[in-house]
Design brief:
Blueprint: H1 6-16, H2 23-34, H3 38-54, E1 56-57, E2 64-65, H4 71-74, E3 79-86, H5 89-97, E4 103-107, H6 125-134, E5 139-142, H7 148-161, E6 167-170, H8 186-194
Parallel strand pairs: 3-4, 3-5, 5-6
Antiparallel strand pairs: 1-2
């Protein structure tokens, strides 16, 4: 006879649907939720519903926001002539943690991937082009991931921007700080050589 509680199984299944969450992690999360008080569980559930209802895309950069325009686009101190194009809102958070970039962003919400049925019309490229036509943009930094799809998306967008006379740059990729050269793969080393600079 198998031990099965339908409501618990359903909760575990929902956690298991999350990226990078396996069966055991999903079980731990489900039992954590079960150990909450009823009030804590309501606060937790309401936070999920609240996020779903209130968070949407910024009408300028397509990043996530609760307002019509996100706080980065609202900030007059940011350099609106430079746009950093990223795949995902999490990439914005990662770059912002460096405190090195004072331009604005554009979130594509994916990359071109014909094998997965994702064409240029399924990500926020049209919004980027519309924005470039209205703002005085001087540089677009392609900060998509160094994957086949990320590279293809960066190349596609750079070809669209070339006739507009906008400088398109790509993030430098190479050997991470603290790494040994002997353990770096060929692609990483070749990118590091291409991206070398004067010191």
């Amino acid at each position: 006879m198998s031990y099965n509680i339908a409501a618990l199984s359903k909760l575990i299944e929902q956690f298991e649907r999350m990226p990078s969450i396996g069966r055991k992690s999903a079980q731990r999360m489900a039992f954590y939720v079960l150990n909450m008080s009823k009030d804590e569980a309501k606060v937790f559930a309401n936070a999920i519903i609240d996020a779903h209802e209130k968070i949407h895309q910024c009408k300028i950069c397509c990043n996530l926001t609760q307002d019509d325009v996100c706080t980065i686009c609202q900030n007059k101190a940011r350099d609106s002539s430079v746009i950093c194009v990223v795949e995902d809102p999490r990439d914005v958070m990662a770059i912002e943690r460096t405190h090195e970039f004072d331009g604005t962003y554009h979130v594509l919400h994916g990359v071109i991937s014909p094998l997965n049925g994702v064409g240029p019309d399924k990500i926020a490229i049209k919004q980027l082009l519309a924005r470039i036509n209205t703002d005085e943009v001087k540089e677009v930094i392609m900060a998509t991931n160094p994957t086949v799809e990320g590279e293809a998306t960066a190349m596609y967008i750079s070809k669209l921007l070339k006739p507009m006379g906008i400088v398109t740059t790509r993030l430098a990729y190479g050997v991470p700080v603290g790494a040994d050269l002997e353990y770096a793969d060929e692609v990483t080393l070749s990118r590091a050589m291409e991206g070398r600079r004067v010191i």
